[in-house]
Design goal:
Distance between the termini: 41 Å
Number of strands: 16
Largest sheet: 5 strands, parallel
Radius of gyration: 26 Å
Shape: elongated
Length: about 450
């Protein structure tokens, strides 16, 4: 039984899918106006983990990920410039060129992070009709009103507004969360925005309410329900989406259908750097390519994510990346050794798999699951071939590409080889302090010495 912490109820719940053996899953995708930094990408590693755990448990997963290529304004108050239009002006390209360019880079980043592609990418600009139809339903049911700059959702008409975020609606004052403008209530939000002056925007469409473009929130409701149904199993995203974006998705969706929108809401916590949330507004942090240029394989960052529970903020530093890099290298080296030096032993597959399942099915406890992985790798009494098979099975959840590993040929410089030989002599003479100094010098040259019964083994750091 999979247990998941449902943000809606604030408790762990046994997972039960709407359709037996199948999971409908929606993941909030990026606004493709710039590069995605590692704080953004953390959300997709998390969603991929959720998906992989379902697959490991035998479910078929239909995952939809949206691409916001219109309508996301620079302010949650439904004011400011459209991020796509702003980027287009800045770079001297069309909004579509901007969207296509940054989406392609985003896709490549996910490949590098070994994220399984979704059933379908859904772009907001390709679902204008569906968004307009949903707004029409809300209009017919009396949930909308018109201002000088757009069509708005009247949050006071949806009595359960704010249930996801546990918002104290009466305690919210104008300007405490978002500005009022012509809104009736501070929690109201735009469904359709009018274009303004002719020629101000590249992206605009005719509608029953006038020339304009969709609000940011309506796209997710329209596209998720089109492909997954009016009620579906799982919705994932970052915790920053809880108070506004996901709250608004629920309000407009359930007002339109009269049905529960999503059964399980899963949110991952922020990435922190020096105690603060990583964000584009603060200059971002690193992109995956920037980390790669510093010598960190993208899967090192994926491994670092596995070491923290998804509901706890994860600290990031290059020191932590170094530790993750060394730990992942060690896992790979030991796995290669297991494949080379086969030995018979006990079959502990059921025992360890039971522990692994307990970890991942208990609200995706990856830190505990990684501990199980290390215990399997180090258990010399466990048959080596069966160990390898189990580790590779675990990796269908971890996504670290531990299958088909090949031993890296290490070319050892002459001076390093001489230091290793000298260190071996020191160890035979029990000159431990001197041998440790030499080990450090070897490390400074980019090599590690592993002391084994058969002699020293040199590996690249």
């Amino acid at each position: 039984m999979i247990k998941l912490f449902n943000t809606l109820t604030r408790k762990k719940e046994n997972f039960k899918s709407i359709k037996s053996g199948e999971v409908g899953m929606y993941t909030c995708g990026p606004t493709v106006y710039w590069y995605q930094h590692i704080g953004n990408l953390k959300a997709y590693i998390f969603a991929d983990l959720v998906k992989r755990v379902f697959l490991y448990n035998g479910y078929k997963v239909k995952q939809i990920v949206n691409i916001t290529d219109v309508g996301h304004l620079t302010s949650d108050a439904d004011t400011g410039e459209d991020k796509m239009e702003k980027a287009a002006k800045k770079e001297g390209r069309t909004a579509k060129e901007i969207a296509d360019y940054y989406f392609e880079i985003f896709e490549k980043d996910l490949v590098k992070l070994n994220v399984i592609p979704p059933y379908k990418w859904t772009k907001a600009t390709e679902h204008i009709k569906e968004q307009q139809e949903l707004i029409k339903v809300l209009e017919r049911k009396g949930f909308t009103y018109r201002t000088s700059d757009g069509i708005y959702f009247d949050s006071s008409k949806y009595k359960k507004y704010g249930k996801l975020a546990k918002l104290n609606i009466k305690g919210l004052k104008a300007g405490s969360r978002i500005g009022m403008g012509e809104k009736k209530h501070s929690t109201d939000f735009a469904l359709w925005k009018f274009s303004g002056k002719p020629g101000e925007r590249q992206q605009e469409w005719a509608s029953p309410w006038g020339l304009g473009f969709p609000g940011w929130h309506i796209e997710c409701s329209a596209m998720s329900m089109k492909y997954l149904g009016e009620t579906f199993d799982v919705h994932t995203g970052g915790e920053d989406h809880i108070p506004v974006h996901h709250t608004n998705e629920i309000a407009q969706s359930e007002s339109a259908t009269g049905k529960k929108f999503v059964n399980y809401w899963l949110h991952e916590a922020f990435l922190l750097f020096k105690g603060e949330k990583v964000s584009k507004s603060k200059g971002g942090l690193y992109t995956i390519d920037e980390l790669n240029n510093l010598g960190y394989d993208p899967l090192v960052y994926r491994y670092l994510n596995l070491l923290a529970h998804y509901r706890k903020p994860m600290n990031f530093s290059l020191d932590l990346m170094d530790s993750a890099k060394n730990a992942l290298k060690k896992i790979k080296r030991k796995l290669i050794e297991l494949k080379k030096n086969k030995h018979s032993g006990k079959d502990k597959t059921k025992e360890y798999e039971s522990e692994f399942l307990y970890a991942i099915n208990n609200d995706l406890n990856t830190p505990l699951a990684v501990q199980v992985l290390h215990r399997v790798i180090d258990d010399e009494s466990f048959d080596s071939e069966k160990r390898v098979n189990l580790i590779e099975k675990f990796d269908s959840v971890f996504g670290l590409n531990l299958t088909n590993l090949k031993e890296e040929k290490v070319i050892v410089p002459k001076d390093v080889a001489e230091m290793v030989k000298e260190r071996e002599n020191m160890r035979r003479e029990k000159r431990w302090a001197e041998s440790d100094i030499l080990r450090q010098r070897i490390k400074e040259r980019g090599f590690l010495v592993e002391d084994r019964p058969e002699g020293a083994r040199i590996v690249k750091e």
